[in-house]
Amino acid sequence: MSDRARHIPEATVARLPVYLRSLAELVDDKIPTVSSERLAEMAGVNAAKVRKDLSYLGSYGTRGVGYDVEYLLFQMSRELGLTHDWPVAIVGAGNLGSALANYGGFTQRGFPVAALFDSDRAKVGQEIHGVEVHHTDDIAPLAKKLGVGIGVIATPASAAQDAADKLVAAGVGSILNFAPTVISVPEGVSLRKVDLALELQILSFYQEHRDADG
Amino acid sequence: MSDRARHIPEATVARLPVYLRSLAELVDDKIPTVSSERLAEMAGVNAAKVRKDLSYLGSYGTRGVGYDVEYLLFQMSRELGLTHDWPVAIVGAGNLGSALANYGGFTQRGFPVAALFDSDRAKVGQEIHGVEVHHTDDIAPLAKKLGVGIGVIATPASAAQDAADKLVAAGVGSILNFAPTVISVPEGVSLRKVDLALELQILSFYQEHRDADG
DNA sequence: GAACGCTAGTGCGCAAGTTCACAAGCGCAC
DNA sequence: GTGCGCTTGTGAACTTGCGCACTAGCGTTC
Ligand SMILES: NC(=O)c1ccc[n+]([C@@H]2O[C@H](COP(=O)([O-])OP(=O)(O)OC[C@H]3O[C@@H](n4cnc5c(N)ncnc54)[C@H](O)[C@@H]3O)[C@@H](O)[C@H]2O)c1
Ligand SMILES: NC(=O)c1ccc[n+]([C@@H]2O[C@H](COP(=O)([O-])OP(=O)(O)OC[C@H]3O[C@@H](n4cnc5c(N)ncnc54)[C@H](O)[C@@H]3O)[C@@H](O)[C@H]2O)c1
Prior knowledge:
alpha/beta; Rossmann fold; disordered N terminus; 2 domains; homodimer; Arc Repressor Mutant, subunit A; binds nicotinamide-adenine-dinucleotide
């Protein structure tokens, strides 16, 4: 791996968090080193893929031995930007937005919910899990002030694009969209989606075809 | 497209539900035909990809005109197996499991929650959104009786593999896993995951590197 | 009925991702 | 210090996916 030629493939980036979780388990179990084969088993992938993926981070393994678990965990955390917190703003303080704010798993993993936003004046001023609900008009100033880099959209589908636009205007560089609709963001802004209905429909396809063809 | 050579690529299958949603919008707006270009714009993809994807379903377009919205919607629904309901079983009746059971969006899209399962005897017998909570020991007989084809795992990570095993033993062919852990299923069983922490970590990576490199 | 405009369907080259297989190299045993 | 077993790192073949650019063909106009 040459010095600054560190363009990590998207597919690899998507797997790093899986390895990270496996490494965290190994640390808990006080296991000092791990082979690519063992890590592959834990992450549910091919061992060659693990080695190639890890090689993008640098040459952190030792031939004949494996990878030092703590060292690799640290390097990977650094690469993923997990050595510091990422305050998150949630737009849409309904069922889902509230559930996410209440879910401790986020803060625990370094993604504290810094603010909730809603367009419903009746919700503004309420507090959910210690986080105040603000009006969507205040996204830009507040998000900037709180250092929010990641926005979560939990509004109805019809309001999702508007929410995205407001987040982008506030300087948010990454968006996680839960609304079941396609939204567009300017180049340079990362966008990922979580779409349950879509996942179920994909499963439905394979289920249907297994039943019919298999 | 030859007669029975209908192996639809995975990447295409994953996009079909997106097209489906766009088509549903068009039907609502009473728009009778749509071009691949318009559909591409709605689905946020390239027009050539739309045409290639749709060609796997059959030759349903008309050159010079476009696709008949209702006809394409029907054919796609049929292909995805959405012409009938898919009863779903949820394992883990905690915060997430309850939220999913309460969320109307599932039933509405043809995935009624047929049963909830939990290992906690205190929860067994309760009713959530009209669905009774059963003990995990009863997954096999009940899932079979209710015709459950799709299982949803909403247990803590430590119990996820056990839940998956029980679902597979009950004849469930597709699993959607919300627990933040890798689980394995026998070949022939479809597995998809929804993992919020993982999504946030991926966003964190790009956010970190934009800030540092850009 | 001929010509034209428009859009589906697709062949093909390119890019990304995956996997195999092997050489490089570390550490331990003796 | 030499040799051996083990595991990494990676070149290269292969697979999958993408998108351009072209052809086929429908419908409409004159
Ligand atoms: N609840 C679930 O389990 C679940 C599951 C999957 C997907 N979803 C999706 O998540 C989204 C939210 O679901 P929900 O159940 O929380 O809905 P909800 O109706 O409970 O909440 C939506 C919230 O968004 C607010 N809102 C509306 N327009 C807004 C705007 N322009 N700007 C800011 N806020 C606005 C509303 O005031 C409301 O508080 C929906 O798109 C839904 O399809 C929800
Ligand atoms: N709540 C959220 O917003 C959220 C968000 C992302 C991910 N998750 C994940 O979803 C899962 C569930 O989260 P939650 O908040 O509902 O947790 P929870 O503790 O509220 O619920 C878990 C439920 O699973 C049951 N359970 C435990 N072991 C079981 C077993 N062996 N078989 C069947 N049931 C068993 C428990 O009795 C409990 O009812 C967790 O893995 C969590 O990480 C939750």
